[in-house]
Amino acid sequence: MDRKNILNNREEFSLNRSVYKAMGYSDEDLQRPVIGIANAWSTLVPGHFNLRQVSDYVKQGIYRGGGTAVEFGTIGCCDALGQGHEGMHYILPSRELIAGSIEVMAQAHNLAGLVLLGSCDKIVPGMLMAAARLDIPCIHLPGGPMLGGEVTFHGRKSDMTAIDEGLGALRAGKISRETFEKLEEGYCSSCGSCSFYGTANTMCTLSEALGMALSGGAMTPAVHPDRLRLAQKTGEAICNLVINEITARNIITRDAVENAVRICLATSGSTNAVMHLSAIAYEAELDMNVLETFEAYNKETPVIARVYPACNADMNDLFLAGGVPRIQQNLLPLLHGQAMTVTGRPLSENLNAYVYRYEKNPDCITTLDAPFEKQGGLQIMRGNLAPMTAVTKPGAIDPSARRFTGTALCFDCEEDANRAILSGFIKEGTVIVIRYEGPKGGPGMREMYKSMKYLNGMGLAKTAALITDGRFSGTNNGCFVGHISPEAASGGPLAIVQDGDIIEIDCISGKLELKVSEEEIKQRLKTWVPKKPKFKKGYLSTYARMVSSAAEGAIIG
């Protein structure tokens, strides 16, 4: 059935037209393709706070382009508001609900196309998963990053991460309570996704890299007038996609995912991107292993862009330096320039037509000839502690800590580890092991964000390490390894690590080893007893039963 003409004057769809007319739509409106706007706006999440206004401008663009706009909401959880309590169990699982809810709305109402409005960590991948699953014309528009904070912290404009680093510093006696309270009041200067290069901005960047967002869409600040102009252009662009029948899978191809992997490595993106790109590729039914792509490309993709946590620059600095288009232009010899995009044109044509409004800043974006790092900013890890895989981020680890050998101190949940860190119990040379925090065991694969920030604030980021089957925030720095698969709850070797064991972490070569004999590991695994599920009913109980490993994208297939 032709989705873009379903409501045209056919008698069998008289009821459908009548229902639209009850909301004020005219016959003229219903002669046009009906295009949905999936909007994650709320007054709960700062990253989405501006999306109601942005949506109004998208609607203008849709009408200009010859379509009729209809809008519906989808959930959008804030990782920051989920920190420190049971809520973090729900954050990653919300990705599947977002993808499913958008699929349901688009299919139930036979929409001709979709504009996806969302900015934050799990919302963007959930939306892109829905686009790939539906395979109808779709375009993504982020809401844009917030401005950097008004308070200076450790030589940089403050941001959300300054709060938890500040708490560690406060407990260690390194800052005053007055300074700490100033951070709380002044770290957010506007609405928008967080001002650092965490998972939210990484995924918005990768949406643009995939070709699913217009050039400049990822990094233009939330409060910049160009954000509204981008919204109008996005509305016009979706109409072009619908008219020309360019669907999501025409754009989310193997070449596009490989481009996104390159951009992620070249920008030291969030470790969570590995899992999210795997899930998007799965929904697009691509015959590729995203982890292996990261592994192969890491050796030949240098880091050419940096922002906090890799340096003191924030997202606004990266925007002024040229944003994603400048990064793509400088990396173009390594990209598939012929990859299709939401403009209906290939990437290379978009870059040739892009107009830069600001001067180059080689401190933020450099060239292939003078990279910040010779290898990519993410590393896939393997070893007897990660028989499938694990992930780390050398781009956010001090060079002195990229190879680390230490003594294990084990915790079976994040809360116990955090209490130990804040009480001063962690010493130099410790490898903190936090387990039973994977997709099934958590459930929900919580971020060990606070644990790493507390270590950083207490001055232990270079002298202690943390490994987990949970996740990390894209803002974490220090020696850490996450996404260890198989997870402890599935009987992975992480479950049998004991206090005092020696663990070797090599973020350069990608090795994660428990320095215990193979025979000893086998003996310990024989006596391992699975833990009982933490949730016996509700969504998390269902999620824990159905979710795959982190190495497979933590998908519900």
Automatic annotation (TrEMBL):
GO molecular function, one term: 2 iron, 2 sulfur cluster binding
Cofactor list: Mg(2+); [2Fe-2S] cluster
Signal peptide residues on this chain, from the entry's feature table: none
Entry EC no(s): 4.2.1.9
Domain of life according to the entry: Bacteria
Gene this chain is encoded by: ilvD
Catalytic activity: (2R)-2,3-dihydroxy-3-methylbutanoate = 3-methyl-2-oxobutanoate + H2O
GO terms of biological process kind: amino acid biosynthetic process; branched-chain amino acid biosynthetic process
One cellular-component annotation, GO: cytosol
Name used for this protein in its record: Dihydroxy-acid dehydratase
The keyword Membrane appears for this protein: no
Domain Dihydroxy-acid/6-phosphogluconate dehydratase N-terminal: 32-350
Protein family (similarity comment): Belongs to the IlvD/Edd family.
Annotated Dihydroxy-acid/6-phosphogluconate dehydratase C-terminal domain residues: 363-554
Keywords annotated in UniProt: 2Fe-2S, Amino-acid biosynthesis, Branched-chain amino acid biosynthesis, Iron, Iron-sulfur, Lyase, Magnesium, Metal-binding
Pfam families: ILV_EDD_C, ILVD_EDD_N
Pathway linked to the protein: Amino-acid biosynthesis; L-valine biosynthesis; L-valine from pyruvate: step 3/4; Amino-acid biosynthesis; L-isoleucine biosynthesis; L-isoleucine from 2-oxobutanoate: step 3/4
